[in-house]
Structure formats: C-alpha cells, structure tokens
Amino acid sequence: MPGLNASLYLGLTGLQAQQAALNVVGHNIANVNTPGYTRQRADLSASQSQVEGQIYFGTGVTLNSVQGIRDRFLDLQIYRETAKQTGADERYAAVSAVSSSLGDTGSTGMAAQVQAFFQGFQDLSTNPENAALRTSLLGKAQAMITGLQTKYRLLDDQRGNADQSIGSLVGEVNSLTGQIAQLNQRIATEITPGANNDARDQRKSLTDRLAALVGVNVVESPKGEYQITLDSGNAVLVTGTNAFDLVAKRSGDEGYLQLTSNMAGTVVDVTSAIKEGTLGAKLDLRDNILVGFQAQLDQLAAGIASGVNSVHKTTNLITHEISNYFFQSAAEANGSNGLPISIAATPALQSGPGWSTLYKGMVNRLSVSSDILADPSLITAGAGATVGDNTRALAIAQLGTAAGTVEMGGTATASFTSAVAALVTDLGTQAQTYKAQSSAQQNLVSALQSQRDSISGVNLDEEASNMMTLQRGYQASARFISVINQLTDQLVNQFGK
What number of helices (H) and strands (E) belong to the chain? Predict the structure, then answer.
C-alpha cells in the first residue's frame, strides 16, 4: 500500500496539473482579442496506476498536452470561400467603376453621340446641298469617334491598372507561401505532435491571407504540414518545407504580365489557371471582362464604319474610290467590307471564346476620310448627280435604328442604338451580378467564421468557469497536501519519540 510520501507526490501532481491548466486559461484570456487565435485546452489524464498485490492505486494526474480546439474542415471551407468572396468584391468594384463611366446617358454619352451622328445624316437629307449641315455632320462624326476612343482608352487604363496590381500581388503570394513553408518546418519538427499551437495559428492566419489573394486547395499531411496548390490544381505553391514562387514576366503583344510557376525545374504557365481571389479577379478583369467590353465597342465601331461606307460609297467615281468611303484610315485602304484591310472578322471565331477578337482594334482605327475632312462636299447625299437627291443620306440615317447592323459575339441582330444600350445594360447587369455574388459570399464567409469562432474562439464566460473549477482543484490539492503533512507530523512527533 502506498505510504505518506506517495500521497504527497499524488497531491503534488494535482497542484502541478491544475497550475498548468490555469496557465492555459490565462493564455486564452490574454489572447481573447488576438486575430486568428485558437483557444487551447489542457489535456489531463490519470497517471498510470501502481499495483500492490491485487489492488491498483492511483498515482495522480498527468498533463498530456495542450491542444488547440480547431475544426480543420471549417478552416478549409473558409479558405475556399474567402477566395471567392475577394474575387467577387474585386470584380464588382472594377465593373461598377467602368459602368458609371461607360453608362453615361447624358449628351456626352455613347448613345447620344451615336444618335447625333445618324441624326446629322437625317438633317443633311432635308437639304443635301447645305454646306453648314455637312460641316455639322463632320463635327458630330468626330465627336462620336472621340467619345468611343475615350471609352476604349478608359478600359485600356483599367486593364493597365489591373496589370500593375498583379506584380505586387504575386510578391505578396510568394512572401506568404515562404512563411507558411517555414511554419510547416517548425510544426513537422515539434517534439510532441500537435503541441505547437501558436505556430498553427500563425499558419492559419497566413493561409487566410493567401486565400484572399489566390484560390487555393489545402491538404494537411499526417505530419501536420500544409500542402497548398492552386484551386485549379495546375501548380503547387507549398509542399512540406518547400515553397514554389510564382514568377511574373511581361510577354505577348500587349506586354502584359504572364505568370509561371517553377516547380523543381518544371515551368508551368498559370496565368489562365488562377481564377479566384484578388489576383484571380485582376487577371480575369484584364484578360476577359474588360476585353469583352472593348470587343463590344470594336464591333459597334466596325458595324458603323462598314454600314455607312457600304451606302456612302458611290459607283460613278471609280477613280476616287477611297474618298467615297466616309470612314477611311489615312494609313490603310479599306477592304470590300468598308473596313481597314487588317480589320476583319475571322469566321472560325464568330462564336465561343474567340468572339472578343472580332474586329479587334477597330475603335482606334476609326476616322473620317481625310479627303472628306478637307472637302465636305465629297459627302455623298444622293445616288447620282441630281440636285436635291437625298437617297443615300436618308439611307444612312435609317441605319441608326435598322436591325442586324452590328455583329455582337458573331450574331448580327442588333441595331446601332440597341447595341449601345445593350453594352450599357451588360455593364450594369454584370456589376449587379458581382455585387450579388459578393454579398452572398460575404454572408457565407461570415457564417463560417462565426461557426469557427464558436468552436475555436475564446469565450470569457467559459474561461471564467474553467478558472474557478481549476482554482478549486488547486485549493483541494493544496488542502490534501496539508492533511498529509499533518499526518506525517503526527507520525514523526508522536511515534518517533
């Protein structure tokens, strides 16, 4: 049977265990407002029993470990949904900014300028020989061209801003993955598996930030290391203690940044593989969304130039064929469709992903014929030389509302007026779509974070209750030791004489 000394040791283990558990509670309370902190819990268990004959006697309590209370599945969900949320936020902010500029409905808006241009031909049809009306028409044509090109440059500027942001975002991604790899090493080499809770909290916070930048898939290995890949699976960002940087280099016709990943000597282009997070949204805006709006402007300009030129061109002035096009690039002759020779629709690209290449660059090539600018009398108002003939001016004016004059995404169904309205509507619709996605993702992420906080967050009421329980346990162990001390004193003083 264990003696008094063994009983003293038993009481001592109680004191030490309760004190250690109180330290854990104190650590939780101290970090109640620390972002990303996961509450910890002391894992206590009864010490191995001592056998005396056929009887097992307890030997106290043992502190096995200090565990972080976390739900790994919730963490993975938050990583994934955070990337979608920040991606939707970024897209909404960019598209809504463009929408407020391109969607101008005032006198300087695209719709008003296009309508004014065709109204100029309508006015000319009422008095075909009037020089003032011809000059006014040229002014309206120039205003429309300037307006379209201004909007186009605005989209170019937005694409340039997105491209500039990509470089700094790649630097942030690489910094985060490097830090996560270092924490992986600390966690993999911990003496007691699962004991380095603060390192895990730091890694979780870093991964939260990484997920906000780029969509990721995260898997935790048996050793506790994070294995992180792009959500598309095209490249590994972190594996064990190794981090693979993304590299941003300028290439292509437009000189925009292209992203590659060098994984142990294997170089992979991941520019189009990054879909979510702030970085994914910037790439999507630069390479798809804003390009799509530019494509609609190009198609509008191509439709106007081709439609007007096909009617304006006469057949009785063969030697002055170029001057008979209303829109004509000074540097390049027009083809049979009334557009610059290098601007054409590729039939194979009239549907599907290639639609944005239709008539690419037409807005910047759109200009009134230099001959007509020099001599407005070359504007063709009639079909022949008859004074007062207004048939061509009237036909061009009617193009403004004629259906099937603009090819949008390979389908010639829109009028010029409706094409502008469709572009403005598309901008507004996309902005609202991204706003709805952003709101939905925000609600989802908030719900997941609240659920994680309910599991992993510090609850002061719960900690206060635990503290009182441990305090009583400590006091009881101290009282037990005091009793054993009294018995020992009696044994020594009374029986030791």
Answer: 12, 13
